[in-house]
Amino acid sequence: MRLNAISLLMALAGGACASTTGPVSLPLEVLVVLDRDARTLTVVPLDSVEVTGTISLPMAAAIVPTTLAVRGAVAAVGYGDDSVMIVDLVQRTVLRRIGLSAAGPIAALMFSADGRGYAASPRANRVTAFDPPTGEIFATTVNGGPQAFGLARGTIFIVLGNRQGCFPPTVPGLCGTGPSWLNPLEGVPPFDSIPLPGPGNASAAESAPDGLLYVLSTGDGTTAGRLSIVDPVIRQEIAAFSGFGLSPQFLASDGERRLLIASDTEGLMVFDFRDRRIVRGAGQGVPLDRPAGVLSDAVGNIYVLESGPCTGGISPRVRVLGSDLVSRRDIATSSCPVAMALTEIPAELLGFDR
To answer: Which whole-number Å values give the CA distances from 43 to 7, 55, 106, in the listed order?
Structure first.
């Protein structure tokens, strides 16, 4: 019987638990970068960043990739026409394209623990679940412009920015922003809502080791952003902090005690969620050039995707900083990187000449 690519990957992963006569390699942490203009995914092993693999994404020039999610060796790339491309990072091939049958771009993607994918389409007010191996989809209408996801205590939360169908904004103040809220993605809609007071345009959510969910409200570029702390059990906001300047947009946990917040105007900022205090806020951030994402790896290194202008001049890069926020090195990227993700893949499956 012939196995498809994803089934083969699952079989290989499952085989790692069986008794073997030879050595089994440990998972290798890998950075995956999506480039909008080059239409590529770049796969970078973090233990040897000079060795990379490139995967072409065949799509019409008018259909722009917008976002990325990765689970194991399977990547999902979201597009401006509300479709998702499933990519095998080991075989470096596109497995399938899944049309979600809605209007407008995909703002966010995520994978659940069972491997199901979820896509947020703010203009269409839809969240679509999709099955990567089969392409089967199930869509749910969620009013309020879903544009991010959060996962806490086993529950997926939809982040609703309430920007009245405007995605993405290009000029501060252009898009109306009413109050934001969260919806748990469970049961049958309509879902119970968790209101998020503040500037509106909630755009990112991150869980932390304390079991709480942290939600970043970006605002419309004319009012200061806000960090909300949400208890996913009682399902309400329990604290909030300002002090991050205008348009804080990207959020990540270092897995220990810090949240990393990236902003084009204020740079890389830090919030200590154990002590609930701002360590580096507005005016104290590490300067960044047009950040497009922030991540932290298993040993506390920080990765900031700096897209630059995407029109020549400053070269885009992934900037690698230590836990002390001091730059360690740069990872070169293609012409216009727009998203990145970290994953783990067994080293022997990557097939790079290393």
So the answer is: 21, 8, 22
